[in-house]
Write a structure and sequence with these properties.
893 residues, four-stranded mixed sheet, nuclease, DNA-binding, alpha/beta, DNA_polymerase_1, elongated, six-stranded mixed sheet
DNA sequence: CATATCACG
DNA sequence: ACGTACGTGATATGT
């Protein structure tokens, strides 16, 4: 398919000149406009892959328009010599790149473009017109799109007739009338004084055109009528001036505009001569790059591969004062850190952005006495800040002794809400998503893995400042999206406040009794060594017990045990398999025991010991708010959401989690059956609601209803089955899954499910409806409007589709439960603050909150915590939280 | 750097 | 007939 790009050469080089910092090459020539133009050109070629491409330039000084209006463009400043010099450079470069350029004596670039586009239109060819001039919108048509260049030359907005209608409710032709009425100071088109865009649009919506307006002034009154009548001539003339002349005699044929890619043989030397190293790199022409001579080369030295054009100040002592003066205008920041764990990472420096100016402040300067006002601003909760992962920034700054407050807008968090399944969207992903200038990937700037190295100040500062600048660009787009998806409230009133609360919990940390943990480790060590000796003896050989591969070899080849299950790579030896093998051979029980203890030793004793902070004697986990697709939190470094509890051996680990002050208690409160209560509410199932309204044991109640028996007839087996069915319901039930869990035939499981749905008809209806809903909308939501997209809900592949269906059933339940405990945390934080309590919230484990509490607050907290948790959100069934406490986390059971 | 296993809700 | 329960993170092997 033919595709023609028409570039308004004069307009773009002008924009590039004023948008780029005044950089020069080693020969002293200013090259900024050529550089800006070329980056934009390469980007267009990359993005649209045109088959035809031309750059049009104004030719000569006199255009036919002067004949009618002497002052045309008279208001425009004379072209500065620094720019004039770059015209021939650009034209030479375009020639060497192999990009056709047109100039026609007596005509301006837009007339050439208008005329070519008229011919292309007539031939039905696809055309993209690139310019910063809104006048060009008049050329939009079915096949012609106008790419309006914004923000320097780094962004374009595409306008077809439909976008013009959406934005102005005008046709492309009416753009001329709009200009005729409102004028354009930059082009010195007078228009009608006192008529701006708003009035002009109103008039055009009423009368359709300049002529219509002038004929219809009788219907108007007052000043407006007078103005229009007085300046009628000016309006008509302005319209004429704004009209792009589309009848330029073109001697060029379609073939003359053909573009078959960059001519690398000539482009290489030309770019090298201009010292555009990053462009050479981008075109894989680095072989042409001039040898390094140690001298900075303007745009290239500092700009690396980044294409954004920004005013960046690398702040030193000398610039600090100006930065501090500008703080009231700064709304975005980026704290550059290294490493994954924010409690251990170093702060490298911070980028700060106002809409006009961007700054980089290295850590050393940030910590210097002179930067005190800057630090005050960072810690000022009334100075709102936008950023990417502010929660992480807060922690990293905290350990540098710098307070952070005023997180107003975290773009990572917003991006997560807008699509929680998109894995870890980094800033660069977001620039791509929102069409912002690309950032160099961190790996390019810092190097990856062992090669990690902080680059020289200039490169570092530019990179980090670009990040904060990028944040500014992202914020606005996201706010609109959040509004459109009804998630503004969720973002502003829940997730943003929660991120600050999480940071407080993490800074606080939870104390770990190191000696007791080591003692426990010795016990485990002894058990492990006994087990290992026994196992080797029984097997008659020593091998690596931790290797499933070697273990499989022993069990299934040497001992000849039956193969129950296979993995991709060989025999499965997981606990489920070993349980089945236990009756065949005594060693299997020992292996299971070994696995249990070895897990506790490596993950929970050794792992936890490594995470105890030298500084505080505590473990400081890092909650991640943007990982789980359902809205849950996740916990890292260490994960404190999977500390053992089910088996007594492991549960002992909890004894080492203690209060950080003598005499205090650990208090834990967990929601009782929160997911099933949520299900009862969402589905509205009467029977299930009844169970919770009467505060019955839900699994017993389920067994009674499914098996049709009375409470005292429910035996432990029936209750166990009912419990499994309830779990299955929450997970998005399948007969196969239930059969696996209960170790029964699939048919039996299917029967169970059918019986369940016969009784809980409302639940069946919910399950059916939510899947239909997901199919129709493409997403499901929680009670607080948290959203999860399920693109695979309509997949042809049975597996993919089934998975999406189960997710559709599960996410509103798990997600709403997550919403509720998050709400409870916000309320709890507020309650502690307002009452001036010393008790501290330390941990969240999905349906549980853990606190440390001084003795004089214990009685109060025993009441307050469950009350706040139960009252977090009003459902059609009560929420219930059960509280317990003790001298450590184990005792709080 | 992927895979298997297992800890939690 | 299809073949899996939902959501996470840490550790150890072995490629």
């Amino acid at each position: 398919m033919d595709k023609l790009i028409l570039i308004d050469g004069n307009n773009i080089i002008y924009r590039a000149f004023f948008a780029m910092p005044p950089l020069t090459n080693t020969a002293g020539q200013q090259t900024n406009a050529v550089y800006g133009f070329t980056t934009m050109l390469l980007r267009l070629i990359d993005d649209y892959k045109p088959s035809h491409l031309i750059v049009a330039f104004d030719a000569g000084k006199i255009t036919f328009r002067h004949e009618g209006y002497e002052d045309y463009k008279g208001g425009r400043q004379k072209t500065p010599p620094e720019l004039s010099e770059q015209f021939p450079m650009l034209k030479d470069l375009l020639r060497d790149l192999g990009v056709p350029q047109f100039e026609i004596s007596g005509y301006e670039a837009d007339d050439i473009i208008g005329s070519i586009s008229r011919e292309a239109d007539a031939a039905g060819r696809e055309v993209i017109i690139v310019s910063g001039d809104k006048d060009m919108l008049q050329l939009a048509s079915e096949h012609t799109t106008v790419a309006l260049v914004r923000k320097g030359v780094t962004e374009v907005e595409l306008y077809g007739p439909q976008q013009i209608r959406e934005k102005y409710d005008l046709t492309p032709e009416q753009i001329i009338d709009l200009k005729g009425l409102m004028g354009d100071t930059s082009d010195n088109i007078p228009g009608v004084p006192g008529v701006g865009e708003k009035t002009a649009l109103k008039l055009l919506h009423q009368f359709g055109s300049v002529e219509g307006v002038l004929a219809g002034t009788g219907e108007l009154k007052g000043k407006m009528k007078e103005k229009l009548e007085e300046h009628a001539d000016s309006a008509v003339m302005s319209k004429k001036l704004a009209t792009i002349y589309r009848e330029v005699p073109l001697e060029h044929a379609w073939e003359d505009m053909a573009f078959s890619g960059i001519k690398t043989e000539t482009a290489g030397p030309a770019l090298a001569k201009l010292e555009f190293k990053s462009l050479l790199e981008r075109l894989s022409l680095s072989a042409y790059a001039p040898a390094a001579n140690g001298e900075g080369t303007g745009a290239e030295a500092s700009g690396a591969a980044e294409t954004a054009v920004l005013d960046i100040t690398i702040v030193g002592e000398a610039e600090l004062e100006a930065l501090i003066a500008a703080l009231p205008d700064i709304s975005a920041l980026h704290v550059e850190t290294n490493g994954e764990n924010p409690h251990r990472s170093e702060v490298i420096g911070i980028g700060l952005s106002s809409p006009e100016q961007h700054y980089f402040v290295p850590l050393a300067l940030l910590k210097s006495p002179a930067a005190a006002p800057l630090r005050d601003w960072l810690g000022d909760s009334s100075a709102p800040k936008s950023g990417y992962d502010l929660h992480r920034a807060d922690l990293a700054l905290h350990w540098q002794g710098i307070a952070f407050a005023g997180a107003a807008n975290d773009v990572q968090l917003a991006a997560y809400l807008l699509d929680p399944t998109e894995a870890n969207q980094n800033l660069n992903d977001l620039t791509a998503k929102y069409g912002l200038p690309r950032l160099s990937p961190d790996e390019e700037v810092f190097g990856k893995g062992a090669k990690y190295k902080i680059p020289e100040l200039e490169i570092l500062g530019n990179h980090v400042a670009r990040k904060s600048a990028t944040v500014l660009g992202i914020v606005q787009k996201q706010q609109q999206e959040l509004t459109e998806t009804a998630m503004t409230g969720l973002f502003v009133d829940l997730e943003m406040p929660l991120s600050r609360i999480l940071a407080d919990m993490e800074k606080q940390g939870i104390a770990v009794n190191k000696e007791d943990l080591k003692e426990l480790g010795k016990e485990f060590e002894a058990q492990i060594s006994t087990l290992v000796t026994e196992i080797y003896e029984i097997c008659g050989t020593e091998f690596n017990l931790n290797s499933p591969k070697q273990l499989g070899e022993i069990l299934f080849v040497k001992l000849g045990l039956p193969v129950v299950k296979k993995t991709k790579t060989g025999y499965s030896t997981d606990a489920e398999v070993l349980e089945k093998l236990a009756p065949y051979h005594d060693v299997v029980r020992l292996i299971l025991q070994y696995r249990t203890i070895a897990k506790l030793q490596s993950t929970y004793v050794e792992g936890l010991l490594k995470e105890i902070s030298e500084e505080t004697g505590k473990v400081h986990t890092f909650y991640r708010q943007t990982i789980a697709a359902t809205g849950r939190l996740s916990s890292q470094f260490p994960n404190l959401q999977n500390i053992p509890i089910r088996l007594e051996e492991g549960r002992k680990i909890r004894k080492v989690f203690v209060p950080s002050e003598p005499g205090w208690s650990i208090l834990a409160a967990d929601y009782s059956q929160i997911e099933l209560r949520v299900l009862a509410h969402i589905s509205g199932d009467e029977r299930m609601k009844e169970a919770f309204l009467e505060d019955m044991d839900i699994h017993t109640k389920t067994a009674m209803d499914v098996f049709g028996v009375t409470a005292d007839q429910v035996d432990s087996n029936m209750r166990r089955s009912a419990k499994a069915v309830n779990f299955g319901i929450v997970y998005g039930i399948s007969d196969y899954g239930l059969s696996q869990n209960l170790n029964i035939p699939r048919k039996e499981a299917a029967q169970f499910i059918e019986q369940y749905f016969e009784v809980f008809k409302g639940v069946r209806k919910y399950m059916d409806d939510i899947v239909l809903d997901a199919r129709k909308q493409g997403y499901v939501t929680t009670l607080l409007e948290r959203r999860r997209y399920l693109p695979e809900i309509n997949a042809k592949n049975f597996n993919l589709r089934s998975f999406a269906e189960r997710t559709a059933m599960n996410t509103p339940i798990q997600g709403t439960a997550a919403d509720i405990i998050k709400l409870a945390m916000v309320h709890m934080d507020k309650a502690l603050y307002e009452r001036g309590l010393k008790s501290r919230m330390l941990l969240q484990v999905h349906d549980e909150l853990v606190f440390e509490v001084p003795p004089d607050e214990l009685e109060l907290m025993k009441e307050l915590v469950p009350e706040v948790m139960a009252g977090a959100l009003a459902l059609s069934v009560p929420l219930k939280a059960e509280v317990s406490y003790g001298s450590n986390w184990y005792e709080a059971k």
